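User: Predict the structure for this protein chain, please.
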Amino acid sequence: MANYSNIKDAIANSEFEKIGKRITVRNAVIMYKNFSGRKTDFNREGNRNFCLCLTTEAADRLLEEGLNVKERIRDGESSEDSLKYITIKVNLNSEYPPTIATYGTKLDGTKYKKVLTAETLGSLDFASFERVDLTFKLFHTVVLDKARTSAYLDDLRVVLRPSDLYGGYYAEYEEADEALNKIEEDTF
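Assistant: Here is the predicted structure, written as structure tokens:
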């Protein structure tokens, strides 16, 4: 994880807006990514989710909505300065699955967009992001006479941070692809 003070600064730049049961967050900070649904100490196999870092104001509002706001307190830190977050579930099997897309720039300067599927979504677990914008829905239920509120992803837009190593490989493989295409053209 990046420098703690940098994360706190980034969270302060997040913008939260609630419209009905949907909450949109621009410049979101996310962590503990498990888009692949792999089994971990904190996750059952098949459960896709991630955690959204919150400003203190957003944490207070979401707590009032009934969400389970967690906090991570570092040694010597007060609760006011703690890192607050919620878990957002990613349900690809729902009647209205979320839209998830990545954006980036190739070395030649052209921009691209890629809509992710269940098979490709796990690639986000280890990706670095320049920007994250998302919308999630609040879902209220009652289980054994206890009210519960969960957050489900509705829309996720991610601008990927290119790797510093990418450039050298990209040019080399692009030349190989062009040579292969030329061979295929000449063959047919």
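The chain has one domain: 4-163.
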